[in-house]
Design goal:
The protein contains twelve helices and 13 strands. It is an alpha/beta fold and 354 residues long. α8 crosses α12. The longest helix has 17 residues.
Amino acid sequence: MAIACCAPFGTGGLGRHLQEVVEYYQPQVSTEYFCLRPLSRDPHGHSISLAGLRLLQRWSPLRFYREWQIYFENRLFDRAVASRQIETDLLICFNGQALTTFRHARASARILAAANSHFNLTARKMRQAFHDHPIEPIGYLRGMHQRFLAEYELASGIYYSSNYTRESFVQEGISPGKLTRFDLTPASRFVPPNRREKEDIFRVVYVGSLSVTKGVQVLIRAFQSFQTSPAELLLIGGSGTRQMNRFLQQAVRSDPRIQIRPGDPLPCLQQADVCVHPSYNDGLAYAGLEALACGVPVIASGDTGMKELIRPGINGWIVPTGDSAAILEKLIEVHQHPLAATYPLLPSRCASSS
């Protein structure tokens, strides 16, 4: 079998997703995988180079539009994998980067790993985010939308990782028999600290892309109204546009309690009091899973798969999407009544959901 994903193996949310799929199948069948950076000296891993795109991202208008960067990166990756002329019984590709490969590969079965909801819902939520917060250039692309829909048609099966994602596909007319659940889990290194230093600081953590569609601006505005002191907001991630960078820099200048710390989220999560996941749309982000695994309660928006793992008042809270007042209310609640989060048991992996 063959698996293709436009991410470095094991790095970031998509790379971790790839790793989980590969590790699930490798003990059962001979598995090759194609990605941006495979495991070192792994004979089954094949590197796909996108060096030309890096020049475009640095010197062309693409550098101002994160969604465009992702769109062209996925298209180039898709073409590069398709050129390998794959022949296999089972081919698994990720959404947004599978169309050309599906059309050219000789495969008995073509599985699409859906990292997010059906794109019709994703597009609506993207428009809502950019309408509510016109900080960045709107990221919706008609070409991207059309590619996603074509991939759904070509796929013989679709993997999803949350009920939120499954429901979005069923509502758009995808047969439940075409859908199979593939549960995601955090890496084993995400565990509570052996000992946490006693501090008076109430620490709020966000992990992920710093973008409008992820709701970072909603969290920042909620935290700016959070008057409890001492407190700090740690944003673990990076921004893809200069407009968001300006917004973030202004937020940091106006409120020194806000810090941006790109890098490994584990040390920050192990010292956090709460993790906030305010995305306008997410299938199931690893950040929330990793937080729970570290014993950190999660405040998540209702338009994410994370909501099915949250037991309100026990390991976190669910808030309306885009509602900074609701986030503020729950920050106050968690500060006054700390939660001892536990990581919930997940269903068995790859259980059919017909």
